User: Fold these one by one.
Assistant:
Number 1:
Amino acid sequence: MQRRDVVDTKRAFRDDRVQKLVMADEKPIVGRTKHGELTLDQIAELQPGLGTLMRDVSDRYWIAYYAAKGGNWDLAAYQLRGVRSLFKKGNLTRPKYKGMVENYTKKILDPLDQHVAAKNFAEFEQTYRAGIELANKLHAATDHSEIVWKLPPNPPQHLDLGPTA
């Protein structure tokens, strides 16, 4: 089966599922706002893909590093929780990557959380850099070798990254 056939089969399956959601009066299920109506399919299409979510993951991962380095462990923990939240959204909207995301979470985010709790920057940095390597390998494994993430050389200027009182 060629890729095109797979896509057409998936589309037909999706269209069949949508037909089953049509109400008895043959009108599709809609959501209403003050601006108009949206079908369930239109609402589903509005959900962000991983590309959109990964921009936010990138920012949060960047901030977490410099927060930990600066001793703002609460901010580092907050940013890592944000990465997890974004991953949950990604798993929902793009379930085919769920295994990769869960693997990354287990190998990288779980240990980072432990290093933040222990306030151990040396271990945090080692795991953090391993996370960059793994992320770039995962990009290549998903046919996105053009995406090579690297830690920006400077901390974000819009946040206080020093220790909290």
Number 2:
Amino acid sequence: MDGQTAAIPDDPRFADFRYSDHDRFPLGQPQEPEATSTLLDSPNLDSAGERDGFQGIVGMSSALLEVLDLIRIVGPTDSTVLIEGETGTGKELIAGAIHTHSRRSARPFIKLNCAAIPLGLLESELFGHEKGAFTGAVGRKTGRFEAANGGTLFLDEIGDIPLELQPKLLRVLQEGEFERLGSTQTLRVNVRVVAATNGDLWKLVSEKRFRSDLYYRLDVFPISVPPLRDRAEDIPLLVRHFVARYAARMQKHIDRIPGSVMDILVSHCWPGNIRELQNFIERSVILTPGNTLRPPLSMRRPAAQSESSEQSTTLQDTERDLICRTLKQTNGIIDGPRGAAARLGVKRTTLYSRMHKLGISRKGG
């Protein structure tokens, strides 16, 4: 091969695709090979995350590298971590990396999605139950806290835990003790909790839907995971990663991605974040007959239709959104070379003044 790739042949599935700055994806009669294409074995596409031992975390953007730095800092401690980020940003991978970099890495890493468990069964899933504790309890069940003893428990969608169960969760976080459902025997455990949410927990607190004391107990070390639109420079790495994964799984040989395709993928807003990109690449690999990736670009939703790409209507709204987003990325840190003031290119006193005027807290709200 000469390092070039032929244009995608005429295909009715691609005929009506339009996307932001791209007038139309190249179609029609066979054209000259593209001079720019991504080679899947190109050495400059190594992932900083994977190279540093963060399995499955792909990217080299400054936003991601800051998250990895925070993982290295908090990993060896036993402190509770709260991971905040939109759906599909890889919060579970971040939780796994925290466990891997901890002194508990050889012990269990137990996961529970609080939103996926019916409310009536969540207490049993977390704390276990005794035989006869409720209808259908035909035997003793070990809960997730007990199973994670000595290791790490990852509680995803922590905001979906009902109010009546939150005091029991707070107790085990503070005291390390609980009782199985239907038992009076107190059990003690040594568990590190890593929680995650795709919502605004502080808003739930203000709405009396989440206990403030539990919030403060979880928010010991917050980590904000950036959405994919804030780390677009990582998209070529992610595309390469997922193409290689699914091509191997489907026993296909795909070693080229046309430059025009990559441009479109990079410029798309991906409201579903990495999960949406991953699923799209899997579909693309399925539809690719040869060694050059042929994605179904007509199936991509234009960026203008995405709620996450809506533009602020006033200059003040734009300024507020920028400050809030930057504060979340820096975990509320304003001073220093990695603080929000430095990122925004303003003096610390200026940023404080604007925050006060716009009613913005350090948490970016």
Number 3:
Amino acid sequence: MPRRLWLRIGLVAVVAAVSIFYLYPPRKTINLGLDLQGGIHLVLGVDIDKALQIQTDRTAERVRSSLEGKGLAVQKAERRGNTEIQIQLASPQAWSEAQSLLQKEFPSFEVKEQDQSAGRLVLALRPAEINSQRDGFVRQGLETIRNRVDQFGVAEPSIQQQGDNRILVQLPGIQDPDRAKALIGKTALLEFKLVDDRLDPAAIAAALFVAIEEWQARGGRADLRALIHRALGSVLAAYPVPAAATPKRR
């Protein structure tokens, strides 16, 4: 009899505990959304045109460096619009060699408006590459914003693409809109400073552009630091480090 009594008591205790759990669940199991606990709602825009202009400016520098590296003088290599590069060779005699080099090293561009007698042509970014870069810029923006939002410690932030070039950010429970806007909306800047004047700045810049383009081609999923380290390694290998002087004994 006592044994059956204890079984009944235990069963009643379990049923009571389960009932209490469902009636009064722990607070941490419920994450209130923006509509229940308030917070911040932001819609950010990715400046696709500006990003394309910056990328095209960098490629124009690479074009000049590549041509001049082969001994082909260039009068002008500059961006036109968002995705085109105007090239003016110093000598029309270099036309064939320049054409071959550009098609080999810059396959994402197509050649148009060719004027062989004047040594002038235009490189235009292919439509498929433009679309790929647009998607990459938005993905990069999403990843950057996610990393910045982590600093707020929000339980369930909502960060998602909206349309072609907008990013929707919802931060439940955050009550400091100025700080959120300042942190999330700030512009990212990657800066390199050359500290060894023995190195060729053009070669360093070309190596960095190659690394960044490869990173973008992979959709921003690769390790950018590893790509830069690998690209710079081939450049630095051409500049032997001088041996340290052996101190003289007195």
Number 4:
Amino acid sequence: MPQRFTGVLLCLMLVSAFAPRNQQSKNNKPGTKPSFGGAASTPDDRLKVGVIKDPFLLGCGCFLKFPDDFRLENDSDIFVADLDDGAQMNIDEKDIILKLVRREDPKGKIKVGSTRSEVYASGNIEVRVEYIVKKLCGPKDEECEGTLYSAKITVTRNGIGRKISALGVCNC
């Protein structure tokens, strides 16, 4: 009987040693595993997209937010683009200025469902924004502040990518 008890106890110890735990990552998000030594970081630690700290654009342009922040009308842009060739994002807690590389405008008249895309770059970072028109201003709507878009933002650095959903307005 003592041998059987020792075997069961050993089995329980091994199972509990390898059982998943609610561990904390470097950014204190529960449920992600920490990295040790030279191991690759967790997906949550790579290409962290945040709110722009010091916006370079305050006038006309495109202003995208995380969907919840947009719905709550929080002042928390994650992507801004001027009407020329500049854009800005906060990546890994640093505000980055991006330059337009390529733009694909919709063909024909812009309507709900129309799509357009832009690609920006800065150093080894590439940002692709795919816009879909969700709402246009009516011809007599004086209170309308711009075209409402949903967007998919793909940030890539050194072959590692991250996709983010956003909502926002382009105006002027």
